[in-house]
Design brief:
This protein is an alpha+beta fold and about 180 residues long. The protein has helices spanning about 60-80, 140-150, and strands spanning about 10, 15-20, 25-30, 30-35, 40-45, 50-55, 85-90, 95-100, 105, 115, 120-130, 130-135, 160-165. About 20% of the residues lie in helices and about 40% in strands. The longest helix is centred in the middle third of the chain and has 22 residues, at about 60-80. About 25% of the residues are buried.
Length: about 180
């Protein structure tokens, strides 16, 4: 049995979950999310708990069991509390500015500012010119947007300049050795 897959998911009172055939829909204060279940995986609702079950002990079923449970749990957390990622911008002249809560203007050392618009359901906060907070209900989309912004100017190993996740350690390299 999957240690993750067999754990029940507790559903808060503010969230409603409906299971129709192979589709799970989660509604809460932060929005509505929907996911199609893999073949063979079933979700049973018993009051305020959800349990994910698999049909057999085949390798594929075992791998999808824990994955499906985690994805549904992430949906429940997303519609109640939401997910966020923080990015840190390091470098002389590197900064971010919010254009509303749906777009960012980034100065990353290029000859032009980089405009980045948020996909549906994602909002940006810029508490300081060198810090960006990405918020949303879908954990996958929040992580993908953070990765896309980081990809615009990855942290380089010599001076450490670029966009990085908050708390990310960048392994520094030694420069040229003088003779």
């Amino acid at each position: 049995m999957s240690r993750i897959g067999r754990n029940p998911i507790t559903v808060p009172a503010t969230v409603t979950v409906s299971v129709d055939n192979a589709t799970v829909t989660v509604k809460g204060p932060n929005g509505t999310m929907e996911r199609t279940l893999p073949a063979g995986i079933t979700v049973k609702q018993d009051g305020d708990t959800l349990t994910v079950e698999r049909p057999d002990d085949e390798r594929e079923s075992r791998s999808l069991h824990g994955l499906t449970r985690t994805l549904i749990s992430n949906m429940v957390v997303g519609v109640t509390d939401g997910w966020s990622k923080e990015l840190e911008i390091i470098g002389v002249g590197y900064r971010a500015a919010a254009k509303g809560s749906e777009a960012l203007e980034l100065a990353l050392g290029f000859s032009h500012p980089v405009n980045f618009s948020a996909p549906k359901g994602i909002t940006f906060e810029v508490p300081a010119p060198t810090r960006v907070i990405i918020k949303g209900a879908d954990k996958e989309v929040v992580g993908q947007v953070a990765a896309s912004i980081r990809k615009l100017r990855k942290p380089e190993p010599y001076k450490g300049k670029g966009v990085r996740y908050l708390g990310e350690k960048v392994v520094r390299k030694a420069g040229k050795a003088a003779k």
